[in-house]
UniProtKB/TrEMBL annotation:
<dbReference type="InterPro" id="IPR015422">
    <property type="entry name" value="PyrdxlP-dep_Trfase_small"/>
</dbReference>
<dbReference type="InterPro" id="IPR015421">
    <property type="entry name" value="PyrdxlP-dep_Trfase_major"/>
</dbReference>
<dbReference type="GO" id="GO:0008483">
    <property type="term" value="F:transaminase activity"/>
</dbReference>
<comment type="similarity">
    <text>Belongs to the DegT/DnrJ/EryC1 family.</text>
</comment>
<protein>
    <submittedName>
        <fullName>dTDP-4-amino-4,6-dideoxygalactose transaminase</fullName>
    </submittedName>
</protein>
<dbReference type="InterPro" id="IPR015424">
    <property type="entry name" value="PyrdxlP-dep_Trfase"/>
</dbReference>
<dbReference type="InterPro" id="IPR000653">
    <property type="entry name" value="DegT/StrS_aminotransferase"/>
</dbReference>
<dbReference type="GO" id="GO:0030170">
    <property type="term" value="F:pyridoxal phosphate binding"/>
</dbReference>
<keyword id="KW-0663">Pyridoxal phosphate</keyword>
<dbReference type="GO" id="GO:0000271">
    <property type="term" value="P:polysaccharide biosynthetic process"/>
</dbReference>
<dbReference type="Pfam" id="PF01041">
    <property type="entry name" value="DegT_DnrJ_EryC1"/>
</dbReference>
Length: 432
C-alpha cells in the first residue's frame, strides 16, 4: 500500500508561524517592528523569478489572487473585456472557468474540441468568433497544452488581434510548450493553488501578465481599485477611479506559497513520468490517451483517455467501480468517468439551459441586455439559447473518456499496475 502524501512539512509550518507571530496579517503594513517582511509580496517576487528563469524572453508580471476562479475574474476585469461581449470557452472544464465570465457581464460562447485531445483548437475557436467576441479562455485541461501559438496566428490572420487570449492554467502548473511555460503564451495566464493542485496554499492563485500596463490594471481590479502600488491619484489606477473586488492573496497564502514553490519542479516531474507511462501502456492496449502537441510537456493534474466506442453511463460506472476496487485503496488513486458532471458538456447544465444567471424569474440577463444595446441588429431577448448549442466532438468525447486522479507520490511502476487493472476490467466488460 502506498504511503500517505507528505507535501507539507517544516518549511510551511515555519513560515506560517512567522506570519502569525507578527500579529499583523495585512500584507502592506511592513516594514515595522513586528513586520520585517511581507510574505505575500515575497511570494509575488518568487513567482516572478521562477517564471523569469524558466522563460527569460517572456518574463511575466504577477498579480497574486485568492483562488483560480478569482484569477480568471481578475484577468477579465483587468484586461477590460467589455460588458456584453462574448467570451469563447470550452464545453469541458470546471465551472470556475465560466462563472467569472457570467459575473463579469460577459456571454459564454462554447467552442467544440479536438476529438483526440478534448481541447479547443484554432479552428474550433475560429468557427464561433463573431464581431461581438472579446476574449477566448483556453483551458489546458489535465495540464496538457492548448495550441495557443496557433490561436494567436489565427487571430492575426483574420485581423482580430483585439481578442484577448486568457489561459486557464489551473491544472497545468509546471507544464510547457516548446520549453515555454503555460501561462506565458497568451495575454494572461490564470493559476490555481487550491488543495488539489500540483502545489497548494489551501486556496489561492495568481495571474501572469505580459505587460506592466495589464499588471497594474489587474492589480487594481483585484483590490477594490485601491492604489496599493503607488501609481498616483492622477493616473487611471487612482483610488476608486474604477470598479474592483477584494480578490487579493493573504499573508498566510503567501507564506505557504514561498514554501511550496521550490517543490514544484519535482512534483511536476513525478506527475509527468506517471502520466507518460500510463499513456504508453494504454495505447499498447488499443485505448486512446489524450493526445499532446509536439513539444508539449504535460504535468497531468489528472490522466484522461478515451475508448473507440461510446458506452452508456451505467456500463461506464460499473467499470469504474470495478477498477477502483482493485486500485483505489492500495495505490491511493481514484478512477472516474469523464471530467464532467454526469458526462455532460457544460452548456447542458441547468444553469445554462435555464439561463439562471441573475436570480430572477423573468429570464432577464444583464449581459444580454448590454449586448442588445451594443449590437441592436444582431442580439434580441433570448438570443443566447444554450438549449440550441451543439459541440458534437465534446459530447462524443464525454461518452468515451475516463479520468484517473493521482498525485506526486505515484511513479511509473504504479502506472503499470493501474493500466493492468483498467485493461483487465475493460476486457471483462467488453469495453474497447
Amino acid at each position: 500500500m502506498i504511503k500517505g502524501r507528505s507535501r507539507f512539512g517544516s518549511e510551511e509550518a515555519d513560515l506560517v508561524t512567522q506570519a502569525l507571530n507578527s500579529q499583523d496579517l495585512w500584507p502592506y503594513s511592513y516594514p515595522s517592528t513586528t513586520r520585517p517582511r511581507s510574505f505575500m509580496i515575497e511570494a509575488n517576487r518568487a513567482v516572478e523569478e521562477y517564471f523569469g528563469s524558466t522563460s527569460p524572453d517572456t518574463a511575466p508580471f504577477i498579480v497574486p489572487t485568492s483562488s483560480g476562479t478569482a484569477s480568471i475574474h481578475v484577468a477579465l476585469g483587468g484586461l477590460q473585456v467589455a460588458a456584453g461581449s462574448e467570451v469563447i470557452v470550452p464545453p469541458m472544464t470546471d465551472m470556475g472557468t465560466i462563472s467569472p465570465v457570467i459575473v463579469n457581464n460577459n456571454i459564454p460562447v462554447f467552442a467544440d474540441v479536438d476529438p483526440a485531445s478534448g481541447l479547443i483548437t484554432p479552428q474550433t475557436v475560429r468557427d464561433v468568433i463573431t464581431p461581438r467576441t472579446g476574449a477566448v479562455i483556453a483551458v489546458h485541461l489535465t495540464g496538457t497544452p492548448v495550441d495557443i501559438p496557433g490561436i494567436r496566428t489565427m487571430l492575426t490572420d483574420i485581423g482580430r488581434t483585439d481578442i484577448m487570449i486568457i489561459e486557464d492554467v489551473a491544472q497545468g502548473l509546471g507544464a510547457t510548450l516548446n520549453g515555454q511555460p503555460l501561462g506565458t503564451l497568451g495575454d494572461a495566464g490564470c493559476f490555481s493553488l487550491n488543495s488539489q493542485k500540483h502545489i497548494s496554499v489551501g486556496e489561492g492563485g495568481f495571474v501572469l501578465l505580459q505587460t506592466e500596463v495589464n499588471r497594474l490594471r489587474c492589480h487594481s481590479f483585484s483590490d477594490k481599485h485601491r492604489d496599493r502600488l503607488g501609481q498616483g491619484s492622477d493616473t487611471e489606477h487612482g483610488k476608486y477611479k474604477g470598479v474592483g473586488l477584494s480578490l487579493r492573496m493573504s499573508e498566510i497564502q503567501g507564506a505557504m506559497l514561498l514554501a511550496q514553490l521550490p517543490k514544484l519542479e519535482d512534483f511536476a516531474a513525478s506527475r509527468n513520468a506517471f502520466g507518460v507511462e500510463l499513456d504508453r501502456r494504454l495505447a499498447q492496449a488499443g485505448l486512446t490517451p489524450q493526445t499532446h502537441l509536439p513539444g508539449a510537456y504535460p504535468t497531468f493534474f489528472f490522466h484522461m483517455f478515451a475508448t473507440k466506442n461510446e458506452y452508456d453511463r451505467a456500463t461506464r460506472v460499473a467499470a469504474v467501480r470495478a477498477i477502483n476496487q482493485i486500485v483505489a485503496s492500495d495505490l491511493g488513486v481514484r478512477f472516474s468517468t469523464s471530467y464532467s458532471y454526469k458526462d455532460q458538456p457544460m452548456y447542458k447544465y441547468d444553469v445554462f439551459t435555464n439561463r439562471n444567471f441573475s436570480h430572477n424569474t423573468q429570464g432577464i440577463w444583464p449581459a444580454e441586455l448590454v449586448a442588445q444595446t451594443l449590437y441592436p441588429n444582431d442580439v434580441t431577448n433570448g438570443f443566447y439559447d444554450y438549449t440550441q448549442v451543439s459541440c458534437p466532438n465534446a459530447e462524443s468525447y464525454l461518452k468515451r473518456s475516463f479520468s484517473l486522479y493521482f498525485d506526486e507520490r505515484h511513479q511509473p511502476a504504479h502506472a503499470t499496475r493501474v493500466a493492468d487493472a483498467i485493461i483487465d476490467v475493460f476486457n471483462k466488460h467488453n469495453i474497447t
